[in-house]
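Posting this for the archive.
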Amino acid sequence: MTNTITYDTSGSAVFTEDFSLDLYAGTQVDDTEWLKGNDATANYPGSLSGFTASNTGGKATAGLKLVCGRMTTVAVNDETITLSGGATKIISAITGDTSTAASSLMVKSVTDGVLTFTVTGTQVANVPLWLIVA
């Protein structure tokens, strides 16, 4: 499957995706789109109402993805990464390695498709970033 996620930053930082994995372990707990099924107005023989217990061709939610990448250029305080395309929501974000502690790159907030960083030291490039996205 071709990855169609786009990563836009608010400043000079660049996020480079190294790989992403589809996580097919179900849908998010609070997502009920799969229950809505198909078109209830379909005309079946005998004028039966449309069968709505299936999500084939309906509004099934795409599965989660695990994304591994790097901040290939330095980020500044309050810089953001916004997702679009194949994913628009960030469920979780983890950043860190031995250089991260020295540069003090931290996740400040995750709000839907926007990830905001706090930078309190001299930032370094190639800090890893792991995301779970939908």
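The helical segments are 98-103. The chain has two domains: 5-26+63-133, 28-60.
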